[in-house]
């Protein structure tokens, strides 16, 4: 089944009211586009609109959190991570305050709105901040699980979601561990380490590879920071070659996090699938994934290159 | 009240001397803008605010956000004199490694600091968030925030000014330290904001203008602002940057300069006179 990230966000927040009396939702003129009208109508005293004033909103979230209220800031990724980056750094991460940032519209999957709205650096900048935890959800069920895990943790968290829909990867709500990962397919030849919408593309790539006799492990590295280093190193040890896959720049995001870990503990051939130091453009999600190299075919090609490099090393 | 005001004047003088001592000993820090806010801090921590140094995290307490965080020495000295931590800390570690007294306020390191600050333009939003929480939870605490007049250059201040009115935060009282100087030059030469009280009024704030060094006008203004309902209040404090030391007053260079030995002695003597 294909389900919407935004619906999962809305349903999670509606359900959260039952278990958490201390949270409020902050948005910057985006409640309607985030499908939160029903939340606003049902719990008007729990949602605050800041107008198009994101710097003010993130700073106010910090102030709110000093009193024990847990603010959940929602919005498009660009406007709740990169526009108010300094406020997040100074007011939330430095004092290590309990603010949750949940962003939709991250990556090329934003589509026709084009480069200004296609946030391709949010993982890089968010993971560079001390105290910040960084997660990416791959489908609706994982979105719900991620939000529950973030609320159970005390400290700043960022959750990245896609714009529109995702193919269900999980039949029921999966376990979501801060610093965890999910091994979705086990193979001995190469590891495809992916997050978000690219997990599904990687599973498709694994099928293509299997047809030609290359057995791929597919790892959903939903916790970009902290990274599940134990799992990553075990799969790198087993397969001897990796491909990182993200709807995001290859500079410093998931690929960067994986490369840092492997360089430190277990140098292994890695190929990086993601945007290659470039901005996006207007187009449909499928057209953009095709043009910028984020399809199953591109991932399979990268996997073959990684496997070939493994051979030349010995 | 007159006797009380005399007492506050005495405290303010001691605070200025200690600010001078700590900046001189650390060989680093911002004197000018620290001297201009001493009376406001004295009025807040020794008269107005409901705070308990033994319980700095009391959820019912009033809050203070020093948005112009570079003038931290003034706040540190005030907090130490109010009993939040020993006065010795002021002089043995300010701006040093492992100190509880960072170059700019750090709520996780210094007892009594309600919000981390230092990058200009952010603190008013922080304070408004605290005030909103008070409204959500039906608490009766007041949130105070000090912003600099140079800091009004930051667009975020005006975002927050609009938000606080829309949210009806009458439990928020802002002080503008209108000393007319900023880092490089006179505020009117850097970016002339024109009629500052009119700007706040236009945003829907309750506005008062006072002599920011005069307890006789300052304290009644704060009391009036506390009683004002329906909108946030701003008290525009006409102040003198470098107040109390004649050769520092209204001199741009004393924004962040450290006095040499001769200047230190002369300044100390004048403050104690």
Q: Could you name the CATH class of the largest domain in chain A?
A: Alpha Beta
Number of strands of chain B: 5
From the spread of the alpha carbons, the general shape of chain A counts as globular
Mean pLDDT of chain A: 97
Low-confidence stretches of chain A: none
Largest beta sheet of chain A: what is the strand line-up? 3-2-4-5-7-6-12
Give the chain pair forming the largest contact, with residue counts.
Answer: A-B, 28 and 35 residues
Q: Helix proportion of residues of chain A, in percent?
A: 40-55%
Oligomer: heterodimer
- Fourth-level CATH superfamily of the largest domain in chain A: Thiamin diphosphate (ThDP)-binding fold, Pyr/PP domains
- What's the end-to-end separation of chain A, in Å? 44 Å
Approximate strand percentage of chain B: 5-15%
The CATH class designation of chain B is Alpha Beta
Order of helices and strands of chain A: EHEHEHEHHEHEHEEEEHEEHEHEHH
Question: What would you say the CATH architecture of the largest domain in chain A is?
Answer: 3-Layer(aba) Sandwich
């Amino acid at each position: 089944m294909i389900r919407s990230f935004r619906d999962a966000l809305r349903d999670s927040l509606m359900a959260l009211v039952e278990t958490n009396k201390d949270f409020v939702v902050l948005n910057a003129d985006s409640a309607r586009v985030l499908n939160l009208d029903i939340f606003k109508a049902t719990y008007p005293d729990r949602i605050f609109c800041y107008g198009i004033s994101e710097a003010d909103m993130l700073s106010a979230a910090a102030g709110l959190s000093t009193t024990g209220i847990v603010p959940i800031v929602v919005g498009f990724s660009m406007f709740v991570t990169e526009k108010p980056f300094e406020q997040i750094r100074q007011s939330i991460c430095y004092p290590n305050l309990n603010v949750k940032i949940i962003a939709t519209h991250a990556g090329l999957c934003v589509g026709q709105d084009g480069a200004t709205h296609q946030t391709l650096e949010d993982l890089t900048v968010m993971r560079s901040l001390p105290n910040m935890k960084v997660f990416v959800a791959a489908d609706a069920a994982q979105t719900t699980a991620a939000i529950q895990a973030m609320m159970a943790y005390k400290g700043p968290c960022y959750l990245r979601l896609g714009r529109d829909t995702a193919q269900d990867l999980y039949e029921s709500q999966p376990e979501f561990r801060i610093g965890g990962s999910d091994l979705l397919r086990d193979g001995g030849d190469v590891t495809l380490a992916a997050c978000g919408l690219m997990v599904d593309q990687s599973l498709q790539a694994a099928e293509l590879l299997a047809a030609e006799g290359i057995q791929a492990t597919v790892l959903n590295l939903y916790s970009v920071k902290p990274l599940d280093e134990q799992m990553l190193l075990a799969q790198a040890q087993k397969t001897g070659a990796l491909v990182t896959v993200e709807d995001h720049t290859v500079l410093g995001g998931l690929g960067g996090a994986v490369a840092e870990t492997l360089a430190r503990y277990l140098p292994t051939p890695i190929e990086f699938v993601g945007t290659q130091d470039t901005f996006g453009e207007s187009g449909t999600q499928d057209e953009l994934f095709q043009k910028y190299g984020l399809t199953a075919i591109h991932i399979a090609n990268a996997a073959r290159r990684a496997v070939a490099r493994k051979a030349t090393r010995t | 009240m007159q006797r009380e005001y005399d007492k506050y004047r005495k405290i303010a003088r001691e605070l200025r001397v200690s600010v001078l001592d700590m900046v001189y000993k650390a060989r680093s820090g911002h004197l000018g803008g620290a001297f201009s806010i001493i009376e406001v801090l004295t009025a807040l921590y020794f008269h107005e605010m409901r705070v308990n140094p033994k319980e700095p995290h009391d959820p019912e307490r009033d809050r203070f956000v020093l948005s112009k965080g570079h003038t931290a020495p003034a706040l540190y000295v005030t907090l130490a004199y109010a009993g939040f931590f020993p006065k010795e800390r002021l002089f043995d570690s300010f701006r040093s490694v492992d100190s509880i007294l960072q170059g700019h306020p750090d709520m996780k390191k210094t007892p009594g600091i309600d919000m981390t600050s230092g990058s200009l333009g952010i603190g008013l939003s922080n304070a408004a968030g605290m005030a909103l929480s008070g409204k959500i939870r039906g608490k009766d605490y007041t949130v105070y925030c000090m912003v600099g007049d140079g800091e009004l250059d930051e667009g975020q201040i005006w975002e927050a000014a609009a938000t606080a009115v829309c949210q009806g935060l009458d439990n928020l009282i802002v002080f503008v330290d209108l000393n007319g100087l900023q880092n490089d030059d006179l505020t009117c030469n850097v970016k002339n904001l024109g009629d500052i009280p009119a700007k706040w009024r236009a945003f829907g704030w309750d506005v008062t203008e006072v002599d920011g060094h005069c307890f006789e006008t300052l304290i009644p203004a704060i009391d009036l602002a506390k009683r004002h309902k329906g909108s946030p209040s701003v008290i525009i404090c006409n102040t003198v940057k470098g107040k109390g030391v004649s050769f520092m007053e209204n001199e741009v260079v004393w924004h962040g300069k450290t006095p040499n030995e001769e200047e230190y002695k002369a300044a100390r003597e004048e403050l104690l006179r």
